[in-house]
Design a protein that fits this description.
The chain is mostly helical. Helices cover about 80% and strands about 0% of the residues. It has 4 helices and no strands. The longest helix has about 35 residues.
Length: about 140
């Protein structure tokens, strides 16, 4: 099993390589698809957050703060989805129903997965210790 922090590190490396490769492809594009000055302005604006946020994130990503950061991530992801819906979907009821149904399906899957994982973990501990385990 891979540790959460290792997965985070690997995802950062993958995103970095993908971003560099995508940027190189985009910059070398010419014609109608060429990069405008607005894109460069947005890139510079975002670079400040990356330069400051990456080291700060590595300092905050500790065992002590891990649960809080996960909860913050979930809140920000939900907020991002809500803002996307307000800006792009607006009053399309069918689209909201599809998104709501998808979210319910995902939450159901996560709940079932967590329940079965913790159930198996509890059974394994009971077999190893020979005692009934509560709260795992």
């Amino acid at each position: 099993i891979i540790c959460d922090n290792d997965l985070t590190s690997m995802s950062i490396i993958v995103m970095t390589v993908t971003s560099i490769f995508g940027t190189m492809l985009r910059v070398t594009t010419s014609g109608d698809e060429a990069v405008t000055t607005d894109v460069y302005h947005a890139f510079i604006a975002c670079a400040c957050f990356v330069v400051l946020g990456a080291p700060l994130g590595s300092l905050l990503l500790s065992k002590h703060n891990q649960r809080r950061l996960k909860n913050l991530f979930y809140i920000l992801a939900a907020l991002q989805l809500l803002i996307f819906g307000v800006v792009k979907i607006r009053d399309d009821v069918v689209a909201w129903c599809v998104i709501g149904g998808s979210l319910c399906l995902v939450m159901f899957g996560i709940t079932i997965t967590n329940r079965s994982f913790y159930s198996l973990r509890r059974k394994k501990l009971e077999v190893e210790t020979g005692k009934r385990v509560v709260g795992v």
